[in-house]
Design goal:
The complex is a heterodimer of chains A (434) and B (486).
Chain A: H1 3-13, H2 18-21, H3 34-39, H4 46-57, H5 65-73, H6 79-83, H7 90-103, H8 110-123, H9 126-141, H10 144-151, H11 153-157, H12 159-165, H13 176-179, E1 183-184, E2 192-197, H14 200-205, H15 207-219, E3 222-225, H16 235-239, H17 243-258, E4 264-267, H18 270-282, H19 290-299, E5 300-302, H20 303-308, E6 324-327, H21 331-334, H22 341-349, E7 354-355, H23 371-374, H24 376-393, E8 397-399, H25 403-415, E9 421-423, H26 425-431
Parallel strand pairs in A: 2-3, 2-4, 4-5, 6-7, 6-8, 8-9
Antiparallel strand pairs in A: 1-3
Helix pairs in contact in A: 1-7, 4-7, 5-7, 15-26, 18-19, 24-25
Chain B: H1 12-22, E1 27-28, H2 31-35, E2 51-53, H3 58-71, E3 74-78, E4 94-98, E5 105-109, E6 114-117, H4 123-131, E7 135-136, H5 149-155, H6 162-165, E8 172-178, E9 184-188, H7 200-204, E10 213-220, E11 222-223, E12 227-235, H8 238-250, E13 257-262, H9 263-273, E14 283-291, H10 293-309, E15 312-317, H11 321-332, H12 334-337, E16 344-347, E17 350-351, H13 357-371, E18 374-376, E19 378-380, E20 385-386, E21 389-392, H14 397-416, H15 435-454, H16 480-485
Helix pairs in contact in B: 1-3, 8-10, 8-13, 13-14
Classes of the chains: A alpha/beta (434), B alpha+beta (486).
The complex binds flavin-adenine dinucleotide and iron/sulfur cluster (2 copies).
Amino acid sequence: MKSVNSHQELLKILPHDDILQQCMHCGLCLATCPTYDLTKMERSSPRGRIYMIKSVARGEMELSETFAEEMNFCLDCQACETACPAGVKYGRMVETARVVVDESIHRQKYSVKLKRFLLRNIVASRKALKFVSGLLKLYQKSGLQNLLRKTCLLKLVSKKLYEIEKLTPVISDRFSDSNINEIENPDGKSKYKTAFHFGCLMNTMFADINQDTIDVLKSVGCRIITPKDQVCCGSLMGHNGDMEFALKLARKNIDAFLKHDYDFLISNSAGCGAFMKDYAHLLEDDPIYAEKAKIFSSKVKDVMEFLAEHKPELELEPKPEPELITYHDACHLAHAQKITSQPRDVIKSIPGIKYTELDEATWCCGSAGIYNVVRYDDALKQLERKMKNIEKTGAKIVLTGNPGCMGQIKFGAEKFDVNVEVLHPVTLIKKLLS
Amino acid sequence: MFEKKNFTIMNSNTKSKLKSLVGDTNYFDSYEDRLVYSYDGTPTLHQMPEAVLFPQDEEQISQILKLANEEKFAVVPRGAGTGLSGGSVPVENSVVIVLTKWNKILEVDEKNLTVLVQPGVITGILQKEVEKIGLFYPPDPGSLNVCTIGGNVANNAGGLRGLKYGVTKNYVLGVEMVLPNGDLLKTGGKNMKDVAGYNLRDFIVGSEGTLGIITKVLLKIIPKPAKVITLLAYFDKLTDSAQAVSDIIAAHITPSMMEFLDNTTINCIEDYVKIGLPRNSEAILLIEVDGKGSAVDEDSEIIKTILQKNKASLIRTATTESESLQLKTARRTAFSALARKKPTTILEDATVPRSELPIMIEKITQSAKQFDVMIGNFGHAGDGNLHPTALTDERDKKEIEKAHRAFDFIFNEAIKLGGTITGEHGTGLSKKHFLEKLAGIPGVEMMKKIKSVIDENNILNPGKIFTISPRCEGSLPIRREQIKDL
Ligand SMILES: Cc1cc2nc3c(=O)[nH]c(=O)nc-3n(C[C@H](O)[C@H](O)[C@H](O)COP(=O)(O)OP(=O)(O)OC[C@H]3O[C@@H](n4cnc5c(N)ncnc54)[C@H](O)[C@@H]3O)c2cc1C
Ligand code: SF4
Ligand code: SF4
């Protein structure tokens, strides 16, 4: 049986048995798991998944279709890690399990190959991503998109394709890596030495947010280095079973950044920030990079985490329109980086703001990396729940700190007809800079 | 290599009958599904069921039980699986009936102050719902965000507020359940007084899924207390904290909760929640008083004086509702947070008369030293109910052995002080060996007789609470492992 190899492999990757043993199956994580909430089945709960992973790793269970299905049904939102008092590292387990699933019996599967090809060759390669994005831009600008959307041509081909197409974000007119100078100096005195990671998706699809981030950072006195030779953080590959490639990217980034002198590496994308903070862990056994990764990761800060510490230095005009604002926690901020109070602190300190809490703010919106594309139907159920909660607040603006969530909630607003604008917090702040 | 482990006892004919009873989409017998219903919250216990069923209505449950009597397989009811005595861990040749999808609140009767719920309703969700309209359902086990009302009733669950408000049984007005022979029993109702015949309702509460499968529960709710004050007291000496508890009780004050946490537990919780708990204190007490305005203030002042007299090094008062909630939430994670130190946390449920608390706490500390095991201690001190928890690793057999010896010692000390070893977690599998010592031989005999009348073929959650020995010399072993066990 082929799977025998995989068990050994899984054991080899999971450093030692302790990480598997840690879960005492108390079940306290069940209430926060979005997939368990849907099915009420133990197999789609964190506790159930951990038990299955444990059994596979110990060679007691086959690496079956059901196992693969449950590993991929998981959103990897890590809400269960936040809920677990015992400190179980669920994210690492499920990601390792995904590697094994991808490498084993399901290797032949066309979809895995395609996913990997796309992630490796398009997302990770700035040139290719820009090329594809350029095409998308052309498609969006040329009116072809409107034509396709209006005529429902895609719907004829495949209902799902038609729906998924709507998830394609609007491509920025210009990309950040050409907009932003390698060194940006503040107008006044330079107080903080920072560096900036512009992200692959942020770079092409949300370049405006990158510009806003630079402007806001400059306003509080940051000198910002944005190395041109930086690469994608690798999180999408890492979370989707291709850790080998993700680590290659990690090493490249470490080299690109550590050449420079800075105290904080700012990220405005929760997913990238979380993954870069994890380099230290992921590379701990790498003889050459272990030390460097530790230094690299210790300097990474989410932009809102940084701004929360520099609130008094933010000089803002009062917000003129009094619309109600709410905040959605990106999983990779709230659960992976445990950052929940800082963005709220900053947002609430904006003069003239009317803020309201969102029910279940830390519940996953279904975006979850590429989950909303590869598991469209499951993601939609989470999105519907999120949109209902947003609608209930009556807010006209929802702020969130991750490109994936922004795209997903924008899509949800259209799909479920909720009248709400989706912004990155830095964009709102930028608008109010005095 | 998997054939052996995949071994099933139940014949495929029975399985297909079960499948057609509940329907394809509610029947599961894959290795994966059986595996993930092989445990509950109890450490070291696990056993795979033959199949997992999600019946849709009472009639289906009844049919399953009738079939079980005909074909002689066991049925194990299950809520959220957070139990700590192995109550919902499957037994040999059994099917699990999961009730988590029965999660509707059927009626909130504001005039009579009752709620009618399905058994799968999550305790914490019920509480939030009734609190929205100014009402209150007090029983609050640590697992309240996950566990079900059915599981609470079956285990007569307690909680942090047990001191003033009692436990689940004080709130159950009526129960509907399917009996092992398939009949539907309805007992109790909205009347606050009812003496028609034996009190079946109270007898069902705490029956741990051995007498029937609960399908509806009518619960009493009460008005929400107008005022709540939450205090946190730090102690440099363990025994001072225990004496403070005894003194508060002796002063005829009944706080709604009085929770005790020792230094090991404080540190594990603080590692998780990071809310500034005192890492160097030997113990803390989390105390809450509630009720009407001025009485609450008076009580809290008296309590503060007693705490000071017992050398509390600091007394913190929660200033906001969210701070108070944060402290209680932190306390609720105690048991799981202890697993940060060692993965296998074996927890005891020792209860002593409250005047004996200081002695019991000292005995527990002594046992940890004497038997060389790490023990974290916390619990509902106001009820005299402690949860000394051995922090071990099940892969280290010697350590487990030491933990058991320490617990035997604690158990005997508790009995000497007039106590018991299961305050609230039930007897299930993990405590049944102690039952005779606690309930006495006539008591256990009576329980067994009742069980064998209601469940003639011993099909419903057999082997839990006590073992009914078969009339003949015992069934023939089916598996090799069983022979080894004999
Ligand atoms: C972290 C943690 C903290 C806890 N704190 C407390 C506490 O403070 N106080 C306390 O008392 N307990 C506590 N517990 C124990 C446990 O949560 C309770 O016993 C709870 O009542 C179990 O509910 P459940 O839904 O998980 O039931 P399960 O564990 O699934 O089942 C428990 C028992 O009830 C039976 N059962 C379940 N549903 C039904 C039904 N519908 N009909 C008939 N029988 C049924 C099962 O067969 C089993 O015997 C804690 C557990 C954990 C993990
Ligand atoms: S992951 Fe944590 S919370 Fe969930 S069952 Fe395991 S120990 Fe409990
Ligand atoms: S990561 Fe999210 S979806 Fe996956 S098990 Fe944890 S809570 Fe559930």
